[in-house]
Specification:
By secondary structure, the protein is α+β, with helices and mostly antiparallel strands. The chain has helices spanning 2-15, 67-80, and strands spanning 20-21, 32-42, 51-61, 91-93, 97-105, 112-124. A hairpin with a 6-residue loop joins strand 5 (97-105) and strand 6 (112-124).
Length: 125
């Protein structure tokens, strides 16, 4: 699984105009993107082995509107939606599909953020 996440971070880091983190250091300048695994499921059947992973990608901005955040969310979609990751040494990976996207404002009334959830399927080689 770590091979898949490494490829995901590499893809986002090369395609996006903002930094990408799995742990955001304190004092990080805006905008930035945070990625986390939400859920991993075993989807095996009697005849096939398959797993799915749901990833949450959150973009953060302090821009006084939603323009910067919407551009960032579109960059994430362009980078991942229907992206066919090359198989790793251990896993065959299917395409990434965006499940939903929403735009919110934090309780501090300064920080705006977008949440995008993606699902992909993989199986051991």
């Amino acid at each position: 699984m770590n091979e898949i996440l490494t490829a995901l971070f590499t893809r986002l880091s090369t395609e996006l105009t903002t930094p990408v983190f799995d742990y955001v250091p304190q004092g990080t300048d805006y905008p930035y993107v945070s990625v986390r695994v939400v859920q991993a499921d075993n989807d095996d059947t009697d005849t096939e082995t398959s797993n799915s992973v749901t990833i949450s990608i959150t973009g953060y901005s302090r821009y006084r509107g939603y323009k910067e955040l919407m551009i960032l969310a579109d960059e994430i979609t362009t980078a991942l939606n229907n992206w066919q990751m090359v198989n790793t040494t251990s896993f065959a990976v299917g395409t990434f599909k965006e499940q939903f996207r929403q735009f919110l404002i934090d309780a501090d009334n300064l920080t705006r953020y977008s949440v995008q959830e993606y699902i992909f399927y993989y199986e051991p080689l």
